[in-house]
Amino acid sequence: VLLRSLGQIDEAITAYQTARLLKPDFYQAAVNLGLAQEAKGMNEAAIQTWLAALQPIDAQTTLLNHLGRCLESMRQFQQAEAMLERSLLLNPKQPDAIQHFCHLRQKQCQWPIIKSFPGLSQQYFYVSFGPLGLLALADDPGLQLSVVQAWMARKIPAELPRLAPYQVYEHQRLRIGYLSCDFRWHAVSILTAELFE
């Protein structure tokens, strides 16, 4: 893990492989090995690592979720959906996996998007959606609000540090800041470029 954090991915891969030789059921090493292989562009090797590591039940959801994400990046949507379905059958209370599963079904135009799983209500499915995914599925403002509130509760810590000081300060000119996670090759950046200009 330290080698990986230092950018020494090849050395990290060797360390993870050694750890797995010493303890084959050390699934955390398999998770990290697959992530390192994926970072090197070795998606097929990552997939094989994760498939071979599906040993203890409590590890399977993590490994299946990584498999689903990696297969999706390779545009193997049906296989990715199958991995997430297996994960949800093992543990249905995974909002992120539900969101990803439904997003994959939307990509493939698999209707209905919501599929029944033992122990999951349709309402839980909706609340597990991401706000953007739900926009393409339902137009009920109350439902959209509850989904956004549930998403915020899962993703945003309740007590965030203040970004601005408490004391008031003044400037002669109005100062406006722009904050977005999409200032990259994304529609937000592309469409706001002229605004900034």
Give an overview of the whole structure.
- This protein is an all-alpha fold.
- It has eleven helices and no strands.
- Helix 3 runs parallel beside helix 5, helix 6 (77-90) runs antiparallel to helix 7 (95-107) and helix 7 (95-107) crosses helix 8.
- 25% of the residues are buried.
- The mean pLDDT is 90.
Please give the structural blueprint.
Layout (H helix, E strand, L loop, with lengths): L1 H4 L3 H14 L4 H13 L3 H10 L4 H17 L3 H14 L4 H13 L14 H7 L2 H5 L5 H15 L31 H10 L1
Helix pairs in contact: 2-3, 3-4, 3-5, 4-5, 5-6, 6-7, 7-8
Outline of the structure:
The chain is mostly helical and 197 residues long. It has 11 helices and no strands. The model has no long low-confidence stretch (mean pLDDT 90).
- Percent of residues in helices comes to 55-70%
- Poorly predicted parts: none
Structural class: mainly alpha
Shape: globular
The major β-sheet equals: none
How far apart lie the N and C ends? 42 Å
- Contiguous helical run count: 11
Question: Mean pLDDT, as a whole number?
Answer: 90
Relevant terms:
197 residues; mainly alpha; 11 helices; 0% strand; globular
